[in-house]
Design goal:
It is built from 15 helices and 18 strands. The protein is α/β, with parallel strands linked by helices and 421 residues long. The chain has two domains: 233 residues, Rossmann fold (3-Layer(aba) Sandwich), CATH 3.40.50.10840; 166 residues, Four-carbon acid sugar kinase, nucleotide binding domain (Molybdenum Cofactor Biosythetic Enzyme, Chain A, 3-Layer(aba) Sandwich), CATH 3.40.980.20. The relative contact order is 0.13. The protein binds adenosine-5'-diphosphate. The site of adenosine-5'-diphosphate (ADP) has 21 residues, from helix 12, helix 13 and helix 14.
C-alpha cells in the first residue's frame, strides 16, 4: 500500500477513491478506521471515510490520528487528508487541528493545502478560493448552516485554525511548473512555514503540485490534488498503473434501486425509471409512522416483482410534500425514520438474494451501508461523474452504487446495470 487517505466525509471519500482509481491506483474505501480484520491486501491506495467534518475537534483529531496509525502500519508512504473543495470548516477547525496533528504524527515539516478542483469550478488564486465565478465568501457557502464560509482567503482561514505558520505558493510560481513549486516548498520550510496554500486554476497546476509533492509525507486538499499523486509512485517504480475498470464483476443475484434522496436529479431519475416500466414502490412516511409499513414489507413487495428487472423503492418527493412530512414529524425525526426503514428493507432484501443495489442519497447511503454491515468497498467503474460501482469486501458480497442525491444523468437508474458483468 502506498497512499493512505483520510477523508472527512463519506461521499468525499468516494470522490477521492474514484479519482485515484481513474489515475491507475487499485483503491479501496473503508467505512471506519481499519483494523486487523479489514482485508486490504493488493491495494495501492486505501481511503478511510470518516464523518469528522463538523464533529467536535478532539474527536476529529483522535479519529484521524487512529486512521493515520492504521494506514502507516499498512505501509503507507504518504498520507492524504481529504476535505471539501469549499474548505468547509470554522475558526475552531476541523481542518487546521487535524492537519496539524497529522503533520506532528508524521514528524514532517511541511504540508500543502489545496482544495482546488477546476473541473468542478473550484479554483485558488493568491490564496483566495473561488466557487464558480465568485469568491468563496460570496458563494452560497456563506450561509452554510454548519460551516458558513465568510472569508475567501485560505491563508487567513487556515491561520485562524492553527498555531503553525501558514504561507502561500502563488500562481506566478505554480505557473512555472513542478520544479518551481518544489523550490517554493523548500523556501517555505526555510521560512518556518508548516502549511502552504498552493494556487491552482487548471488541472496542470494540480498535476505539477502533485509532482512537486512527491517526497512530502502529508498532502492535504480536495480530490483534485490527487490527480498528480499516482504518477509519483509509478515514476518511482513502486506500482504499475492499473487500467481503470470498465465493468464490475458483480455477484449473481437480483437488482434493486433504493432512493431516499429528494433532490431534483434523483426525482428525475425516479420518474425516468417509472416511465421505462421499472416496477416501483412509493414509501409513504405516514404509513411508517403509523406502524403499518416496515422494511420487511417493502422487501416482500420487491421479491414478488419480475426477477429480470430491477425493482425501485423510493421515498423521494417534491419539496412541498417533504415540507408537510417534516412539519408533521419534525425534520430530523422524519429523515431518520425513513432512512432506518430503507436500511431495514435493504437488509431484508439481501437476505432473500438481492445483491446488486443502487442507493440514492448521501445520508440514505450511509444508513443502508451501516445497516448492511459493509465495512469496505472496492472501487469499480464510474457510472456518471463522481459515482462508481463498488463491491463490498467482507460479509455478503454486494455490488453497490452509492449516489449523492444530486449526481447522475436522468437515465442513471436504467443504464448503471450495463456496467455490471
Ligand atoms: P441527498 O444526497 O439528496 O441530500 P440524503 O439521503 O442525504 O439525500 O438526504 C435526504 C433526506 O431526506 C434523508 O434523511 C431522507 O430520509 C429524507 N427523506 C426522504 N424522503 C422523504 C420524504 N418523503 N419526506 C421527508 N423526508 C424525506
Amino acid at each position: 500500500m502506498l497512499l493512505g487517505c483520510i477523508a472527512d466525509d463519506l461521499t468525499g471519500a468516494t470522490d477521492l477513491a474514484l479519482m485515484l482509481t481513474r489515475a491507475g491506483m487499485r483503491t479501496v474505501q473503508v467505512m471506519q478506521v481499519p483494523d486487523a480484520s479489514t482485508k486490504l491486501d493488493g491495494f495501492d491506495a486505501v481511503v478511510v471515510a470518516l464523518k469528522t467534518r463538523t464533529c467536535p475537534v478532539e474527536e476529529a483529531v483522535s479519529l484521524s490520528l487512529k486512521s493515520a496509525d492504521a494506514l502507516l502500519a499498512l505501509g503507507a508512504k504518504q498520507l492524504f487528508f481529504k476535505y471539501c473543495s469549499t474548505f468547509d470548516s470554522t475558526d475552531q477547525g476541523n481542518i487546521g487541528p487535524v492537519a496539524e496533528a497529522l503533520l506532528d504524527r508524521l514528524g514532517a515539516d511541511l504540508a500543502l493545502v489545496c482544495p482546488a478542483f477546476p473541473t468542478n469550478k473550484r479554483t485558488v488564486y493568491m490564496g483566495n478560493l473561488f466557487v464558480g465565478d465568485v469568491p468563496l465568501a460570496e458563494s452560497p457557502m456563506k450561509d452554510h448552516p454548519l460551516t458558513p464560509m465568510r472569508d475567501s482567503n485560505l491563508v487567513r482561514v487556515l491561520q485562524r485554525q492553527t498555531k503553525l505558520k501558514v504561507g502561500l505558493v502563488p500562481f506566478a510560481v505554480v505557473h512555472q511548473g513542478a520544479a518551481a513549486v518544489s523550490e517554493a516548498f523548500a523556501a517555505a520550510t526555510a521560512k518556518g512555514e508548516s502549511f502552504v496554500v498552493v494556487d491552482a486554476i487548471t488541472d496542470q497546476h494540480l498535476i505539477d503540485m502533485g509532482t512537486a509533492a512527491s517526497g512530502m509525507r502529508l498532502v492535504t486538499g480536495g480530490s483534485g490534488v490527487a490527480l498528480g499523486l499516482p504518477a509519483n509512485f509509478i515514476r518511482q517504480g513502486l506500482m504499475r498503473a492499473a487500467k481503470a475498470p470498465e465493468q464490475l464483476k458483480a455477484p449473481k443475484g437480483r437488482s434493486v434501486i433504493i432512493a431516499g434522496s429528494c433532490s431534483e436529479a434523483t426525482r428525475g431519475q425516479v420518474a425516468a425509471a417509472k416511465a421505462a416500466g421499472i416496477p416501483a414502490f412509493e414509501v409513504d412516511p405516514s404509513a411508517i409512522q403509523r406502524g403499518s409499513l416496515a422494511g420487511s414489507e417493502i422487501a416482500a413487495w420487491a421479491q414478488k416483482q419480475p426477477a429480470d428487472k430491477p425493482a425501485l423503492i423510493y421515498s423521494s418527493a417534491d419539496p412541498d410534500t417533504v415540507r408537510k412530512v417534516q412539519d408533521k414529524f419534525g425534520r430530523d425525526a422524519a429523515g431518520s425514520m425513513i432512512e432506518q426503514t430503507l436500511a431495514a428493507a435493504a437488509q431484508a432484501m439481501v437476505k432473500v438474494g438481492f445483491t446488486r443495489m443502487i442507493v440514492a442519497g448521501g445520508e440514505t447511503s450511509g444508513a443502508v451501508v451501516n445497516g448492511l454491515g459493509v465495512t469496505a468497498l472496492e472501487i469499480g467503474p464510474e457510472i456518471d461523474p463522481g459515482v462508481p460501482w463498488t463491491r463490498s469486501i467482507g460479509g455478503t458480497e454486494l455490488a453497490l452504487a452509492l449516489k449523492s442525491g444530486n449526481f447522475g444523468a436522468p437515465d442513471f437508474f436504467l443504464k448503471a446495470w450495463d456496467r455490471l458483468a
